Amino acid sequence: MKRFIFVFIIFIQTLRVMAQEVPNTKVDSLYREDQFFFGITYNLLLNKPDNVKQNAFSAGFHLGFIRDMPINKRRNLAIGLGLGFSTNSYNENLLITKLETGTYNYEILPNAETYRRNKISNNIIEVPLEFRWRSSTYTEYKFWRIYSGFKFGYVISDNAKHRGDIGDFDYGNIEDLNEFQYGLTLGVGYNTWNFYAYYGLNSLLTKDAVLNGNSIDMSTLQIGLMFYLL
């Protein structure tokens, strides 16, 4: 029993010494927020030509890093500048075929039963620029946020895929797809769950993409959820 009491006293004294040696944790008053992000969106096509319809689920996946740069003493206002990557698909009934001349032909698939898949997809390197407001403090980690801004993207690869009765084929690096994409962004939410939207300001295709004598001037709208990490 005496041996147990002796060991217990030594154990308590050791804990006291260790506690004295551990420095006090300082609260970081120069914190930055939400510098890593990832999200998923539902992708819509706007300004579609007559009879062009979307089908199935057109998804977008987004991730990247934004450097958070607070601009006031409280640090709840900031400018964010970053680098990201997104991959997007648009399932629709606009058939793209490549002619022997190297140009592309566009036509509408009238019957959805004649094909299993028909879509346009792209992979984009993006540069987001945001003005950020949040209700956070350096001790509060659950907060409201409103992030609005502009996003510029460069398409590093694109693809048109068809699987159907007329055959299975893929075309990559299509010249008629715009290699630059840019638009407005908005993120609004609390804590983990954040609504996200991107409104494209330019067309998905160039003026060389023509359907029935008219340019296919479709733009994009992406809506979904965005998740942020420090």
| Rg from alpha-carbon coordinates | 26 Å
Q: Provide the structure class.
A: mainly beta
In N-to-C order, the SSE pattern is HEEEEEEEEEEEEE
> What fraction of the residues are assigned to beta strands by DSSP?
over 45%
Number of helices: 1
Summarize the biggest pleated sheet: 8 strands, antiparallel, barrel
**Main sheet: which strands, in order across?**
1-2-3-6-7-9-10-13
Number of strands: 13
Apparent shape: elongated
Low-pLDDT segments, ≥5 res? none
Helix fraction by DSSP (H/I, runs of at least 4):
under 10%
- How far apart the termini lie comes to 52 Å
Summarize the structure.
By secondary structure, the chain is mainly β. The protein has one helix spanning 2-21, and strands at residues 36-46, 59-70, 77-91, 94-98, 104-108, 115-134, 144-164, 167-172, 180-190, 193-200, 210-211, 214-215, 219-229.
Question: In terms of topology, how is this protein built?
Answer:
Blueprint (H helix, E strand, L loop, with lengths): L1 H20 L14 E11 L12 E12 L6 E15 L2 E5 L5 E5 L6 E20 L9 E21 L2 E6 L7 E11 L2 E8 L9 E2 L2 E2 L3 E11 L1
Antiparallel strand pairs: 1-2, 1-13, 2-3, 3-6, 4-5, 6-7, 7-8, 7-9, 9-10, 10-13, 11-12
